[in-house]
Design goal:
The chain is of the alpha+beta class. Helix 1 packs parallel to helix 5 and helix 1 packs across helix 8. The two termini are 24 Å apart. It has 8 helices and 21 strands. Strand 10 and strand 11 form a beta hairpin. The strands form 4 sheets. Strands 5, 6, 7, 14, 15, 16, 17, 18 and 19 form a 9-stranded mixed sheet that branches.
């Protein structure tokens, strides 16, 4: 398969964010000739896989079926650390707080019970002593997962990019794709700079997946998510002092955050809610008073020793399926096209195992990893006819 420059590729990966970079790495280390195409600069901050931190955990309250994938993800993150000599996963632990019958506590306990995971239970009173600076309501149950941690996002993506290139992949930033096509044996991808051909295509386009997978009909919704950093004092929320990442299920919504890694600020965001984004290219990245109202209320009630003056902010994109679970599958018409999308704000921790799954699907259209619950067939989708 030749490009206009004469190079030969086995697989083209469309979108080189977190998932795409991991897929390029996995395919390249298996000996494939890989071209990765990214519309923005490599390791950019305009999609979903960027910034300083994401939570990684195993007692997965969203569904117990994710846990085997997480076991493998942890293994692959540690392998990547060893290969690159970088610390990518910081073992901070994670404290969960919410009603005993709420989705968070009930779901985490279910996953822990089914998979034999370490999850420590606290009363609200004991949790306040164990985790100073947090206010746990008396009617909340509190659980602590000691094996959870924090991923250093930009460094994770950069590590996958570097390893992909080291293994022979060609990655091109600032090259938006215009369209792609397949005849079942080869794929053609047309960009603003040229046309490329390969045997296979992987689509990992994040918030731009609807456009790239229009004929699959996934109907993904993109949400704007505001993230703020707020000042702290006296080291009370410091990671160095053993303060964990945290997740609260409250009557107002679900909120999460991280301990202070710089000794000056903590990162806080709301996992629930979010504003619909009709066009990811034109998302509003400014800070508005309405962005702060709910975060201020959360901090006042649950982290009262944090300051309220915003130190800095970021905007992230959640790409949501209707059931908030991922969709990873082979294209319904073209067996040489595979895709992963709709990571719904909880996908980054799975990045390396998604890369492994997609590489498996490219090579043999199946994987030994248990992903049946993430298939597109769970949706009632009417496949669009060819144009």
């Amino acid at each position: 398969m030749q490009t206009n420059g004469g190079s030969v590729f086995d697989t083209i990966v469309l979108g080189v964010g977190g998932m795409g970079a991991a897929t390029c790495h996995e395919l390249a280390r298996r000996g494939q000739r890989v071209l990765g195409l990214e519309q923005f600069p490599l390791v950019h901050g305009l999609g979903s896989s960027h910034g300083e931190s994401r939570i990684i955990r195993k007692a997965y309250f969203e569904h117990p079926d994710y846990v085997p994938l997480l076991h493998r993800a942890y293994e692959l993150w540690h392998e990547l650390e060893q290969a690159t000599g970088r610390q990518l996963l910081i073992p901070t632990g994670l404290v969960l707080s919410g009603p005993a019958d709420g989705d968070t506590i009930r779901g985490a306990r279910l996953s822990a019970r089914q998979h034999g995971l370490a999850l420590q239970d606290f009363s609200a009173k004991d949790a306040r002593r164990r985790f100073p600076g947090f206010e746990f309501p008396d009617d909340h149950d509190v659980a602590f997962e000691p094996g959870a941690g924090t991923l250093r996002v930009d460094q994770c993506v950069q590590a996958h990019v570097d390893e992909a290139i080291r293994n022979g992949a060609e990655l091109r930033g600032n090259e938006p794709a215009l369209d792609w096509s397949s005849d079942g044996d080869t794929v053609q991808v047309r960009t603003q700079l040229g046309e490329y051909a390969a045997r296979n295509l992987v689509v990992t386009a994040g918030a731009w997946s609807n456009a790239c997978l229009a004929d699959v009909g996934l109907s993904l919704n993109v949400l704007r998510k505001f993230v703020g950093w707020f000042p702290v004092r006296n080291g009370i929320y410091s990671a160095a002092a053993g303060i964990p990442t945290y997740f609260f299920e409250t009557p107002a919504g679900t909120f999460y955050g991280f301990p202070s890694f710089d000794g000056q600020t903590i990162k806080v965001a709301e996992h629930s809610g979010g504003e619909p984004v009709p066009d990811p290219h034109s998302v509003d990245r400014a800070c508005h008073p309405s962005d702060l109202t709910r975060l201020h209320a959360f901090l006042k009630t649950y982290l009262p020793d944090a300051g309220r003056d915003l130190a800095r902010h970021s905007v992230c994109l959640y790409t949501m399926t209707t059931d908030k679970h991922f969709v990873i599958d082979v294209h319904p018409r073209w067996k040489n096209v595979v895709f992963a999308a709709g990571f719904s704000g909880h996908g980054f921790k799975f990045t390396p195992v998604v890369g492994q799954v997609l590489a498996d699907l490219v090579e043999r259209q199946k994987t030994s990893l248990q992903i049946q619950f993430l298939s597109r067939t769970r949706f009632q989708i009417e496949i669009q006819p060819e144009a």
